[in-house]
Specification:
single chain; mainly alpha
Length: 55
């Protein structure tokens, strides 16, 4: 599965601290899971569009 998050964006938000390489993988995995759950919720509600409320 492709990476969802960009390392530069993560580093920007985590200002002032170093970010370990394993953090990127764990965070990306969590983001992918969140997206999958949002897609499932949208489908359960008969929509083909994922919206903020699905998160």
């Amino acid at each position: 599965m492709p990476k969802v998050l960009k390392k530069s964006g993560v580093r920007e938000v985590a200002e002032g601290v170093n970010v370990g390489s394993e953090f990127y993988d764990a965070l990306d995995e969590r983001a992918q899971d969140l997206i999958r759950r949002a897609v499932e919720r949208a489908r359960e509600n008969g929509r083909k569009t994922v919206k903020a409320r699905d998160v």
